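Ig-like domain-containing protein structure dump, as promised
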Amino acid sequence: DAKTTQPTSMDCAEGRGANLPCNHSTISGNEYIYWYRQIHSQGPQYVIHGLKNNETNAMASLIITEDRKSSTLILPHATLRDTAVYYCIVRVAHWDRWGCTCAISPWWQVRRRVAFI
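structure tokens r here:
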């Protein structure tokens, strides 16, 4: 199983971009990089995921290095509402018959890190 390492905490200015790095140097070819966040007193919330290519959605961008050993979650215009614990997870996924990408690694293998806005 790939292990991930992240900074323990990060600060950024409101309205500015926040770059949250994640190192996953033991990643294998079929493992996806997932980011979740957990706002205080709420359950985890999916942010973004990718395999090899950079990805962007309405909430964030995921930049993956060519060798896939590290990645960066970019929150383009961070606000106080983005204050949360951000989880970088590397896990194998598969496509089920409904077309969903489904994780097969347990959630509790996550290493938690905090981002302060």
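The beta strands are 18-23, 31-38, 45-50, 55-56, 61-64, 70-75, 84-95, 101-103, 111-115.
lmk if u need the other ones
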